[in-house]
Amino acid sequence: MQVSYLECTRCGEHLPADRPQNVCPKDVGVLFPRYDLASMKGKFRREDLRGRFASMWRYAEVLPDAAPVTLGEGFTPMLRSREYSTVYIKDEGLNPTGSFKARGMSAAVTMARHYGLKKLAVPSAGNAGGALAAYAAAAGIEAHIFMPRDVPIANRMESEYFGAHVTLVDGLISDCARMVAERKDREGWFDVSTLKEPFRVEGKKTMGYEVAEQLDWKLPDAIIYPTGGGVGMIGMWKAFDEMQQLGWIGSERPKMITVQAAGCAPIVKAWEEGKSASEMWSGAETFAAGLRVPKAYADYLILDILKQSGGAAVSATDDEILSAVRHWASVEGVFAAPEGAASLVAYRKLLANGLLRAEDTVVLFNTGTAYKYLDMMQAQEKTSPASPRNAPGARNIGGIIGPY
Ligand SMILES: Cc1ncc(COP(=O)(O)O)c(C=O)c1O
Ligand SMILES: [Zn+2]
């Protein structure tokens, strides 16, 4: 087992990685897998990656040493923006099941199979459930998924087609999490909730390795990441530390920037108030379903990363997000999930307020594909003044346009 131990991010406690673990038994802190990077230094080199297959498992030395359950996740394109010459769009929409969640679930299900687990459960805002269902199907493991009733249709249908047991919940991901917690012992489920399972973050961290490798080992000045539970951001930050320990990069770090939907922005609120943890957001509402996370389990880690990196937390309204989806599609040829397009909104705001300069190299994460959100977007179009369809007189041009 390549993973030396699991370490609590709160109290530093070490736990063995040879059996399934959730969180620190002492203080319920998030557990991070740790490797013997010091002895890998000089032996595992950047050049060793040349010619390896284009998936996240190309970084095998810093991932758990178990037979991967893979569907070809990772090593997604780093597209140079056609609109801004110093901006890149990391397009996670090309992953299996259409979002970056594939990375975390590939790693988590790999370890679940390695440990011999037979039943997994997860609360999900949508895409994590779909991704778990796919990898569980590939591994021949049972998946129990709890998602809000009003998730995008794609999430519900993909989960069912992949053969998962889907429970639709009248509530948010936090209500789903409570249901998993209440039932898991009785049902014999292993909980793979974001950051309550140590290996999803390992899959996600490969985004950090890819950013470095694809930009020829020079990290960008800033990374903008749509943040719900925050694993993407936390994983990349971990990757940067690991790469420094391996001698692949120096101590420089990008400004890490969180973007959230204005209708559910607990991290933005905590950041603006200078707090080190967030409060449960009440009345969470946004069509960017993956950002409807009223309280991130690892909020303390996210806020710490923003602070350490000199970053920021910004919110985007649903109207701003919808028009950014349309803008990216028409200007870049990228049909981004609402969560991903929120990154563009944040980029513009930070250029305007001076935190970012036009010459800064910035990576905007498109975390998923719009093809999974057609129903949500259609509904949003109906109300949004940002939609050209709702411009005064639009309905008179060329006859009938709606209903959608
Ligand atoms: C497309 C998309 N982007 C971003 C997020 C937020 O990710 P995280 O919970 O890792 O912060 C999600 C979560 O469901 C998502 O589906
Ligand atoms: Zn602890």
Description of the molecule:
The protein has 404 residues and is an alpha/beta fold. It is 36% helix and 15% strand. The chain contains twelve helices and 13 strands. A six-stranded mixed beta sheet has the order 4-5-13-10-11-12, sandwiched between helices. Helix 2 (101-115) runs parallel beside helix 3 (127-139) and helix 3 runs parallel beside helix 4. The longest helix has 16 residues, at 338-353. The radius of gyration is 20 Å and the shape is globular. The mean pLDDT is 95. Zinc ion (ZN) is lined by residues 8, 10-11, 13, 24, 26-27, 29. The site of pyridoxal-5'-phosphate has 20 residues, from helix 3 and helix 7.
In short:
This protein is 36% helix and 15% strand. The chain is of the alpha/beta class and 404 residues long.
Distance between the termini: 53 Å
Q: Which ligands does the model contain, each kind named once?
A: pyridoxal-5'-phosphate, zinc ion
Unreliable residue runs = none
Biggest sheet character: 6 strands, mixed
Spatial strand arrangement across the major sheet:
4-5-13-10-11-12
Judged by helices, strands and strand pairing, the structural class is: alpha/beta
Strand content: 15-25%
- Radius of gyration, Cα only, in angstroms? 20 Å
Rounded average pLDDT: 95
Write the element-wise H/E pattern from the N-terminal end onward. Answer: EEEHEEHEHEHEHEHEHEHHEHHEH
Approximate shape:
globular
Number of strands: 13
How much helical structure, as a percent, in the residues? 25-40%
Q: How many helices in DSSP terms?
A: 12
